[in-house]
């Protein structure tokens, strides 16, 4: 009985860690701004690639 409880608790902990790691890797692949907590209210274009920065300054 105790072994079953330990296996259940261990699989919950490792499952949560795996899901968190997967989400973190997905965010990192999107780039610096995707992981930023200020993404929606950010007024700077520092995360944009250089070609997009040129487009913003030319308009």
From TrEMBL:
The chain crosses the membrane at residues 6-22. Keywords: Membrane, Transmembrane, Transmembrane helix. It holds the Pfam family FeoB_associated. The keyword Membrane applies. It comes from the Bacteria. This is FeoB-associated Cys-rich membrane protein. It comes from Lysinibacillus xylanilyticus.
């Amino acid at each position: 009985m105790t072994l079953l409880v330990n296996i259940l608790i261990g699989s919950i902990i490792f499952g949560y860690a795996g899901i968190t790691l997967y989400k973190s890797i997905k965010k990192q692949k999107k780039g610096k701004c995707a992981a930023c907590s200020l993404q929606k209210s950010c007024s700077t274009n520092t995360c944009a690639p250089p070609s997009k920065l040129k487009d913003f300054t030319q308009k």
